[in-house]
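Hi W., the zinc ion complex you wanted:
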Amino acid sequence: MSKSSRGSPAVSLGPGWTVQQVVERSFNSGGTDTCTQCGASVDLGERHYRVDVARDVELTGRRLRSEHEQLVFCRADCADAWLGR
Ligand SMILES: [Zn+2]
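Structure:
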């Protein structure tokens, strides 16, 4: 029996990350992921929300590379809370 804290495990992105879009998704492939905001298990076969974020990464001061992440949320409220809306 693991003792889980009630604190939010929310991932906070560092400076430079920008939100690209918020999309509602469901995949037939199934599988589970963890809600970025509340830590709930998200069934990817069910409707859930994804937030695409990106940032430019500087490589040795010469080039910029775009780095993308997709964050999973169990519902719109969690995405909104994480986005600070
Ligand atoms: Zn959630």
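The two ends are 35 Å apart (CA to CA).

W.
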